[in-house]
TrEMBL record:
Pathway linked to the protein: Quinol/quinone metabolism; 1,4-dihydroxy-2-naphthoate biosynthesis; 1,4-dihydroxy-2-naphthoate from chorismate: step 2/7; Quinol/quinone metabolism; menaquinone biosynthesis
This protein's encoding gene: menD
Species whose genome carries this gene: Bdellovibrio bacteriovorus
UniProt name for this protein: 2-succinyl-5-enolpyruvyl-6-hydroxy-3-cyclohexene-1-carboxylate synthase
Cofactor: thiamine diphosphate; Mg(2+); Mn(2+)
Reactions performed catalytically: isochorismate + 2-oxoglutarate + H(+) = 5-enolpyruvoyl-6-hydroxy-2-succinyl-cyclohex-3-ene-1-carboxylate + CO2
Length: 523
């Protein structure tokens, strides 16, 4: 089998399995694959020069399209650049297909140029590693679960381009057009027993878009107090206004401490709220039942779990939660106090988020790392909500966030991204792909508070903060994006299609906000 035949066979098998988009980092060793993709114009190809950003962009495309996406690299350390995205893909259940070109197998272990041990490099973070060449060209994805990344390593002999370029047939109905639904490991009966024998607080984490309606209908019927994280896309939904906790995470602690609720029902991804970590020690006796889209419990202790969000539409329950109305009354009072603080300190970091959130109504919002996620949950308006919210919170912190945002962006909405300054600096090359996208309206908001201020309230050491005095105006100019610096959120602003906004909080107002906020919860 020639190199070109082998490349064509791999691409055809990917297409037969439902792949419709390829993220390509072209090089010499993967040139057979490059030629196949370039000559078959019926395949969608995004071109990148840098593998780490490309892999995170592919994760964004998977999250947006609910299809597997393949990233193709050359050999050597280019392969290693995919590891961070493979980790995130594993814990977010996003099947990134990593197709890596390699030198012939006899070069392994020799230290020859561009030769590293590529097979097995992703360790736990792939479901399978397929090692193929002209002599062993069998490749099949039929037995895979599609719950984790997949590694396909292809060894090419020289000369690399050794025959005609094969034609790829794209079937109109593929064998796998969408990511598969996961079968539940728990049972419907176990869930019903839990719901009918406990008085749980519901915490909703990140959700696939197709699950929004199912989860919302369950919450409306079950009527338990519910805390919706921003990344669930249900925060502030008018249909759950009477049961939603809107004063922030501290209210969860009051509910658990008072034993108003005796358990936790988690729906969706592993919550980002601090209270979830407290379930390991402070609240270790509180029962937890998780209804999710993957098998990760998010806790080291024993819990009950069902891996099918669809079962929420089938579960039956008899418990009535109306006696928890006193929770909603206290929560509403505290939420109003917090809104008054946000209006009192409009240039605080929290006040800026509150005002900014009103501009994102009916748009798509990507929250880029820990601090923006927490500040969105605590400070954004419940009255003007995005239609889509997402984040990479399977495992990663600040790498590849802008790239994932660009991959996830929707062509029919304004696309907003809220990130910290260090996060933006970690992914400066991400804007490369913008001209290749169908989505056109992008607003990247960089909260520039001079370093990693999330640590300022955790540790009393400046070394954690990585202080700086960098402005992002030159970054915007480099990629021909428009740039604005905001100390206040303007009521009226005409933004360009490609817009970077540098948000500058007032440190003193932020300090005063937190001081009064903490006092509020001591009552």
């Amino acid at each position: 089998m020639t190199n070109m035949e082998l490349a064509g066979k791999v691409v055809q098998e990917l297409v037969n399995s439902g792949v419709r988009e390829f993220v390509l980092c072209a090089g010499a060793r993967n040139s057979p694959l490059v030629h196949v993709l370039d000559e078959n114009k019926n395949l969608k190809v995004y071109s990148f020069f840098e593998e780490r950003s490309a892999a995170f962009f592919a994760l964004g495309r998977i999250a947006s399209t609910r299809r597997p996406v393949a990233i193709i690299t050359t050999s050597g350390t280019a392969v290693a650049e995919l590891l961070p995205a493979a980790v995130e893909g594993t814990y977010s259940s996003l099947p990134l297909i990593m197709v890596t070109a390699d030198r012939p197998k006899q070069y392994r272990g020799t230290g020859a140029p561009q030769t590293i041990e590529q097979v097995g490099i992703f360790s736990y973070y792939n479901e399978v590693a397929l090692d193929v060449d002209a002599e062993n060209s069998h490749i099949s994805f039929k037995s895979l679960s599609w719950k984790k990344p997949i590694h396909v390593n292809i060894c090419f002999e020289e000369p690399l381009i050794d025959g005609p370029i094969p034609k790829i047939d794209v079937p109109s109905i593929s064998e796998r057009t969408r990511l598969p639904g996961q079968l539940p490991l728990g049972t419907l009966k176990e869930m019903e027993e839990f719901l009918n024998s406990h008085n749980p607080l519901v915490i909703v984490g990140i959700l696939p878009e197709k699950a929004y309606g199912t989860v919302l209908e369950f919450l409306k019927q079950y009527k338990a107090p519910v805390y919706c994280e921003g990344i669930s896309s249900l925060r502030g939904h008018p249909d759950i206004k009477d049961i939603e906790i809107r004063s922030g995470e501290k209210m969860i602690h009051r509910i658990l401490a008072s034993k108003t609720c005796d358990s936790i029902l988690r729906i969706g991804g592993v919550p980002t709220a601090r209270v979830w970590r407290d379930l390991e020690d402070k609240y270790k006796e509180i029962p937890v039942f998780s209804v999710s889209f993957n098998h990760y419990s998010g806790l080291s202790r024993s819990t009950q779990q069902c891996n099918s969000l669809d079962l929420l539409s089938q579960v039956e329950f008899a418990y009535n939660h109306r006696e928890n109305v006193k929770v909603n009354i206290e929560d509403a009072s505290r939420a109003e106090h917090i809104r008054s603080l946000l209006r009192k300190y409009p240039q605080s970091e929290q006040g800026l988020i509150f005002s900014l959130s009103r501009k994102m109504h009916r748009g798509s919002l990507y929250l880029g790392n820990s601090l923006p996620i927490r500040e969105w949950d605590s400070s954004s308006s419940h009255d003007a909500i995005p239609v889509r919210v997402a984040a990479n919170r399977g495992a990663n912190g600040i790498d590849g966030q802008l790239s994932t945002f660009l991959g996830w962006a929707h062509p029919e909405t304004e696309n907003w991204c809220l990130v910290g300054d260090l996060t933006a600096m970690y992914d400066l090359s991400s804007l490369w792909v913008t001209s290749q996208l169908d989505a056109k309206k992008f607003r990247i908001v960089v909260i520039n508070n001079g370093g990693g201020q999330i640590f300022s309230r955790m540790f009393n050491k400046e070394i954690f903060i990585n202080k700086h005095q960098i402005s992002f105006e030159s970054w915007a100019k480099m990629w021909n994006w428009s740039y604005e610096k905001w100390h206040n959120i303007p009521e009226e602003s005409k933004l360009s299609d490609l817009q970077i906004i540098e948000l500058i909080p007032d440190a003193q107002q932020t300090h005063e906000f937190w001081k009064e906020y903490e006092s509020l919860w001591k009552e």
